[in-house]
Amino acid sequence: MKKIFSILTSTFLILNFSAMAIDVVELKMPKSNKVVIELMFRNGSISDPAGKEGLADLTASVLTEGGTATMTHKQITDRIYPWAAGYSGSVDKEVTVFRFEVPSDFADQFYDIVKGLILTASFTKEDFDRVKNNQQNYVEQVIKASSDEEYSKKALEDLLFRGTNYQHLVQGTASGVKAITLDDVKKFYKAYFAQNNLTIGIAGNYSDAFLEKLKKDMAGLPAGISCFANETIPAVPATGRTPDGIQIEIISKDKALGSAVFTGFPLPVTRKDDDFAALMIANSWLGEHRKSYSLLYRKIREQRSMNYGDYSYIEWYQNGGQNMLPTYGVPRTSNYFSIWLRPVQTAKGLKGQYPELSSITVGHAHYALRMALREMNNLVTNGLTQEQFEQTRDFLRSYNKLYVQDPAHQLGFRMDSHFYGRTDYITEMDALLAKLTVADVNNAMKKYWQTNNMFITIVTDASEAEPLAASLKANKPSPMSYSNNLKGSLEKKILDEDEIVAKYPLNVKSVTIVNSADMFK
Fold this sequence. Notes:
The protein is of the alpha/beta class. The chain has 20 helices and 11 strands.
């Protein structure tokens, strides 16, 4: 009887799972010479089991940097090179995405590799060890050594989401990665790379038969059932902590070349909300990424030559140091506003260059932070003028179209749109922008933005950490430190404004110093 029941149950599960409809996002382009496939799984780093942080990223890397049941990774790369085909994988907080691109003439041949990588990965010990060693090195060394500004961004997320599944790096923690075994990767793959948390995206010049084959094969993935304790599929995203006043964490690092500053607070608006369009305009005027017209850029970099750039964001901006335009594949339901002050000079650095500054004890970080929050507060209080509103809206309605210049980007943004419950984010935002008024934008700023309650992380040199902490805690005046040559070239109105900014009160409630060696353990 038990045997019959088992057979009936198995048959029911097979029928039930085969009948499950996998979400599909299509973008047919008959005149294109490419086929682009995107497989988005709802299993990002928030799905990592406790104590094995980094497992989602490691599993995805083993899939894309390993072989299949019939081919090694080198054999795959050798085979697809003449086709000018390629593939990659990426993991973020809530999703894992695999992307495949191939000229349409080779789509059928390339498809066997797509299928093999996703359905019959080899999971060899050699591939696992290589990928794990690289990931361990990233968490322990690379993130702390390669870019202080990227380091400060990841440190803010650690602070903002502390104690939640959003806290740790996508790549994990040092102890988490170390604890992961090849068996963990295999178990995670079976549990989380499943048909019931998959969305298929396809764009370009493909046949209906090609898509049907893809859908049928992906339906062969298991239905996800977690094999880790206290985990659900998909995992439930945490929300950011609400800061009490301005809470600052200074990361003290030996031989840091400057002070990299990143600030933020939870924002209950994402691309799914119509208010996002109003905040796009406000944010663009305040600090659009790498745009010299924005307020922060003009005030801090252009007028005072303090650093490379100063920007603000109303959602996570992936690899801001490398990307000029927003990328796709990092959709998030847990959002936050942020300001990014790319590294400003420390007292040690300034004194080493300019003898006339030999008496200063704190570099530019305190002043730059005051300037940024003062400008933001003024914007929220006074709002945009009609002219500023119209100029910024006109810019954005053209600029947003640059996000989708090729089939891969068009499909990627469509996939992200699907994540947020939209169909076409670019088109829908354009329509929302067209209907906005300056009052809508100014009201949105007053509703969602403020400067009294923020988390702030500052990665700085060990010599700067203590003096900067003391200055921030006591709200000491932070006069701007110029070389004589630069100061002599500045207009009086800038120097007069400096006097005001230097004493601008910040609602600082706590300042702590953390040794860089203790981060991301």
